[in-house]
Amino acid sequence: MDNRKKLKIGAIIEGVGYNHMGWRHPDMPADASENIDYYVKQAKIAEKAKFDTLFLIDVSHVGPGNIPHYLSMFEGVSIMSALSMVTKNIGLSATIAASYGDPFSAARQILSLDKISKGRASLNAITSNPGGMVNYSRGHLTKADQYPMQKEFMEILLGLWDSYEDDAFIRDKANGIYLNPQKMHPINYRGNYFSVDGPLNLSRSIQGRPVLFTAGMSDNFMNNAAKYTDGVFTFAQSVDHLKEIVTKIKKKVALEGRSPEDFIVAVSQQVLVGRTEKEAEEKFREMENLIPQYRIQKPLFFGSAEKVADQIQEWYEAGFMDMLLVQQEHPTALEDFADLVVPILQDRGIFRTEYESNTLRGNLELPYPQNRYSI
Questions:
Q1: Is-contact 185 163, C-beta < 8 A?
Q2: Measured between alpha carbons, how far apart are the two ends of the chain, in Å?
């Protein structure tokens, strides 16, 4: 274990929570999902605890039966840009669907976020559901189009983020030289879904490229992830379930000629912790009592701080979880985790006590990607 990278931790920030009842809790602002002050508070809690990144799940097709958070929530790049101004070290991960997003716009938005935050941006480039595609005038496409479309989307993103070599911009006032045009590169991409000339009109990221993730569990998802991304967001019901997922995807990464050690598997889990088992139980009952007819499952990571820390350590040391994404149901779940569990993980040497880098890629211990044109 001595050579293994330390555990990474992210915070899924989703306002009133991933449930139907959280907004009714007396400690939760009923408008938390579109309340900038609430998001700032959550971001500062996570950064104080040295979390690697904030992460926003996004949707674009809703109806009255959706969870309250999905019914009134901020657009991802907008909220992450706002949070970049009140944080210094923590990463900022927004979600954009390749099924209806425009790759040039997405590349520009995320690289702009990266510039604003000085190297802390990442993108979760997902596929979509049919309803979301209709809202973006893509209703004529089918499910079979989604992963071929995502493949093109990712190829264009990575190409655009390499539009300029690292030293392309000279900005020599005395000699009137702003750019070395030999180090500016259009991509001239022609695909079945997208056609993009490029180049992007932003200089290269100080982290080489913004970190690229995707989310899912299917074989098609794994194939695209292994070829193009820095890591994946996934979910597992047990260590054995996670082992099955991770073994498969890291094998695919290796077959692409890439290092599986430099590929992040982030696992999302609801976390509910108390100082004691009894306190955790009381918090769970608080949630159940808000809407008695609506039942929620007890989280896998549940109980006293020591117990939850033991569970996290077990999943991490099994070698299949690189990052834990903390998802909140109870209003104080993120703060409780930061205050009670993180110090235990730090004392055990599993999680950092200080940020190692000024960039997200650096803190994730991912190698700097060389520009394709300067290799």
A1: yes
A2: 33
Half-sphere exposure for 236 (CA within 13 Å, toward CB):
22
- The CA dihedral of 230, 52, 111, 17, to the nearest 10 degrees, is 100
Residues 6+ apart with CB under 8 A from 289: none
Radius of gyration of the chain (CA): 21
Which residues have CB under 8 Å from 198's CB, separation 6+?
104, 159, 160, 163, 185, 186, 187, 188, 189
The CA-based angle 22-24-29, given to 5 degrees, is 85
Question: Helix H segments across the chain?
Answer: 36-48, 68-71, 76-84, 103-116, 130-135, 146-160, 219-228, 239-255, 277-290, 305-317, 333-336, 342-347, 360-363
Task: Return the percentage of the chain with pLDDT > 90, whole number.
Answer: 86
User: Token match 């093109």: residue?
Assistant: 152
Instruction: Pick the closest to residue 261 from 10, 3, 53 (CA basis).
Output: 3
187-225 per-position pLDDT tens digit: 999 999 999 999 999 999 999 999 999 998 889 999 999
Strand pairing category for 177-179 and 169-172: antiparallel
Q: What is the largest CA-CA distance in the chain?
A: 73
pLDDT at 99 (0 to 100): 87
From the list 125, 51, 106, the residue with the least C-alpha distance to 83 is: 51
Residue type, 262: D
Angle between helices 219-228 and 239-255 (to 10 degrees): 50
Q: Give the Å distances, CA to CA, from 86 to 77, 97, 144.
A: 15, 26, 41
Would you state the pLDDT for residue 1? 46
Q: What is the pLDDT of residues 299-323, one digit of tens each?
A: 999 999 999 999 999 999 999 999 9
**C-alpha angle 233/239/244, rounded to 5°?**
70
pTM of the model as a whole: 0.95
Q: What kind and span of H or E run contains 124?
A: strand 121-126
